[in-house]
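Dear U.,

For the methods section draft, I wanted the exact inputs and outputs in one place so we can describe them consistently. I've listed the two proteins in the order they'll appear in the manuscript figures. Please don't edit the token lines directly; just add comments below if something needs changing.

First protein:
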Amino acid sequence: MHQRIPRSLRFRFFAALGGLLLCAIAALASISAWLIFPALQAEERATVKRELDRVERSFELDQQQLHSQVRDWAHWDDTYRFIQGEYPRYADVNFSQEMFEDMRYQLMAFFTASGDVHFLAGINPVTGDYQTCRAPIDDCSWMTPWVTNMQTAIAENRTDQSSIYPDRPPAIMASSPILRTDKSGTAVGWLFKTRSLDDDWLAFMEVYTGLPITLNLSKETISISDVFSFSGNTVFAERYFPTSSSLSSVSLGVGIELNRTSYLTSLTTFRYVLLWTAGLMIMVIALVLLLLEKIVLKPLRLLTQFTQQVGIDGADAHGLTKRNDEIGLLARTFQEQFACQQQLNAELLKLSTHDALTGLPNRRLYDQRLETAFSDAVSTPSELAVMMLDIDHFKLYNDHYGHQQGDECLQQVAGAFNSIATKFNFLIARTGGEEFSAILPGASPDSAKGIGEQLTRVIDQLQLPHATSPVKPYVTVSVGIATLKDSKSPSPSAIMSTADQALYLAKAAGRHQVVLFTPPKASNTLSAQNTPL
């Protein structure tokens, strides 16, 4: 009897694998055409968009920085006095061509409350010369368009903001009302600053972002989405921003040009892989899965864990930073960038909350701590005292010894104050030119007064000569103290106002005093406990 010889297992294996291979190739081709190639293109666009987002964030940061600088200048007692004609040396003391060049200012303009020009200073964009004037005429006639735009903004109540103006070249213009340092009272004028988006600004931004940037003014309708233009190995992307212009259609286009080499290389490599996949599918697929897990997926999971842990404790449990491959490079780069970011964040936080001259906390940090201390004292409840300190006749000191010596005096006084604050664990801040303020949580009136007396004594011990002082031949301070129960209303501003009244009484009593505010008696007369030094 004839017995059928079964077909070779090898044949059936290759036949099945061949059919599977054909199906895999067809599926791979379909996936490539419908999913992979579009995904690569979408990823390329997403990468370009991320770079545009980075440029936009840098641009917005520059605007915010300029606006913040305008507010710092405008909310300054010296500026308040200057706009009222009480500080004629203001411009000589604070303005110079070097300052304008370092801060990249084009023009600073001061306007009165009625919108009239009070003072102008800037760098001529044609000659590069620093110029000051009282009106945009003659040598300052180049300022006329800017002054006109600024006065229009004042008339339309478009102040205390940052805007883009479509000039040639375009520029950023920021403004703020001029107020006292404590922002009390009404505005007595306006301060404007402009920063030209010229070639120097573009060069600065290119160094900052690491990307080639172009600017383009367009009268076309602003595009809602980004505009992409692909040409060979490069892609040009542009994003439009609205400008402050009488022509509402005028917009500023910010463009970047990126190299497509990585994308094109990936595309070519992928097509090459497709051609060889048919011959290598059977032999490679299992190995690919194994290698993919071992070389790519597992290290990527470890890298993800590393990026989550480095922000907590900086741990590197799997030694990724010691690898000599791309994963190790990514881990080291991420660790360095994270450390750099933390350092920059710490520096930015310190700059925004501490006085640059004395190193003490500034008004912003003081107000934040006062809010917290006030809330704690009200909710506990517990005692709270605040203190206002002022260097006696500091203007006479500056006039006699000069501003540089005045700055050194402020630094020494601040250092002495800080030593007492550290000893008794309370916060003292520089809240004005020669004005300091302190927060004493849990301090009774007597203990607060005792600390005030120690603060005055430590300044007396410095024996800083003050030849023009009618109080003492050396630098002295006056202190006003108020407690939470002394304020007319339950608010941080009210208790500070009460401390200010006590300081006023100390000055009225001849200065070099520690005055503890005492609530008015039935006769409605204001009294205080004071200690002459």
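Second protein (the one for the lower panel):
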Amino acid sequence: MKNIFLALAIISQFAIAQNKQNKTQKDTTTIHELESVFVTANRTATLRKETPVAISKLTAKTIDESKAVAMYEIVNKTPGVLMVNLGNEQNMMTIRQPMTTNAYYLYLEDGLPIRPLGIFNHNALLEINQFNLESIEVVKGPTSSLYGPEAVGGTINLISQKPSFYPEFKFGVQADQWGYKRIQAAGSATVGKIGFHISGISSIQENSWMTYSDYTKDNLNVRVDYAINDKTRLISNTMIGKYYSDMSGGVNESDFNNRSYKSSSDFTYRKSDALRTRLTLEHDWNLNASSYLTVYHRDNKLGQNPSYGIRWSATNNPTTALGEVNSNNFKSYGVIGQHTQKFDFWNTTMVSGALYDYSPVTYWAYLINLKATLNPGNPGTQTVNKYEIVAEHPEVKLADYTADIYNTAVFKQISFTPIDKLTVTVGGRYDAMKIDYNNALDNSTGNKSYNKFTFKVGANYNPVKNAGFYANYSQGFSPPSITSIFRARTGTGGNTGIPAEFYYNLKPATFENYEFGGWISLLENKLIFDYAIYYMDGKNELLNVRLEDSSTDYRSAGETNHKGIEFGFNYRPNAQWNIRMGGTVAKHRYIDFQLSDNSADVLQNLGGYEMPQAPRWSGNSELSYYPNWLPNFRTSVEWQSVGSYYQNQINSVKYDGYNIFNARVGYKYHNIEIYGNVMNLTDKLYAYNLSRGNAANAQTTYLAAAPRTFLLGIQYNLSLKK
């Protein structure tokens, strides 16, 4: 990646020379800086007071001052959001759902899904170049009526930086005491009718606080804008990324409490090669009409020897275990078009669009045999000190299929103002998803279809200038991922001697969401408060049932319920101080979930039980100081709070949660910026995530959080803006 940064420096110097004479064109970098304007919730620029959903925006200033190593450090500043760090930029998400890896979140890059329908990956955000972000918009609750399946718990739209008119160049390095280092650079300018923005990062982690947790990541983003004329633009975006990480997994209770951060495996890994490219033609027909057409291509290769795939039993031959190696490769070819039309009648805005996506995918997984070396302890309650690979069996397939995924969709949304101060929004989308498959394990071919119409209706009422209310009803749905459908059911296939059985009958999960919220601005906009109250019913949610040998079975739950209150508070008494508070109080529970059909089991249905890994409370708050006596200096203290939650489905064991503090400081002197972050300021012992089986002798697995971490960085910023 060193050549990337050399190229950026050369291009930046070339742009400086070419643009000395161009001083009259409007600077385009300020177009999207108004926090009151959002593009995600309505697929077009809309004022917050006309958007009947819970939506938050993380601005360029917030992103820049975070100096984040991983995306969760930025996203967790959003009220109602808990992005769970799984290490090395891997993550789980919690937005109106428990902590989960299920396909209930939609991750967008400039409005386009990072993954095609049916190939959800909870780690998709590890492919993002943090140095390339202009802003992040987070919509909470279902948005399937505009964006389709998987947009259920929340939708996160990562908005990339655009070409600047005046030449700009940034270059920086950062590192911590645990072996993490990153180099990053970006260059941007406009030369005549052509604008470009190029951004690259290269990260490496070696010999960290957790054994066997090294990783490398290289990303390059290139955007080129061509102004054909005053009304027509051609925009090209390309992302290339490579990622490789050891997968250390969790630790047992004793090692966690003793801060013995030792991985039980030294062979597990995750690697990703990703390419995304798109070409967009935008045209403004007049002041009231605009259209765009985007063609895009994705090419992803994801390979794993996953730590979560290790299956071990404390009672059944505890010195052996099973694991797997798998590979998931896909390509996408798609087109999406959208037209926005405004009418004078009732101040109406209509957004209409259509999408076609073709994504062929290949997936295989094979068995590996492991030896388990145990820690001292009583039989039946011992834990594993170390796993070792005994033999690999590429001939023993756990999954082996190819599939062609076709998704066709049409959508429309209309917003209008029938009376003064009241805006009504109605939208709907129809998705037709078809999977043509060839499953080599049972020599079957066939197809599966998931077709669904989703609907939403909402209204905004703004009785006075500084206060407003909204209400909405929205639907969401998510078909089972094809990885789940074609995974051999536990206890079949492989080397069991039992013919493989599959999850062909998994049902799509469907959701109905009812929501009310509002905002108020006081003290001449120095104090802003917003809130949302939601009630969401889910049916046929795809839930993981953790069995006694730590293996996972999939079940479509009969019914679940999710309800809560989200709030955000921001107070800026003067130019020196800013106080931000945000959080959510929520409850997620099973209404009807048949856990077991065995009459010998005491607990068979979990109706009324709380869902595991579902904190009743989570929040993030921050106090920032920008002293007048030292211009260009900043400092802040952040508080991350996560309440208690049940570790298992039967609600027998709880984790108390945690409260941690982070501190950030930075100073700019001319073109040089020096900064430092202290994460986990008090060096608290805590876990990002805990999980536990339902069996009486099950042991808790702790995903240990990092001890106190000092990050230092320096960055050079050059801008010829006059």
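Candidate sentences for the figure legend, describing the second protein: Residues 264 and 386 are 4 Å apart (CA to CA). The domain at 2-719 is CATH 2.40.170.20 (Maltoporin; Chain A).

Thanks,
Y.
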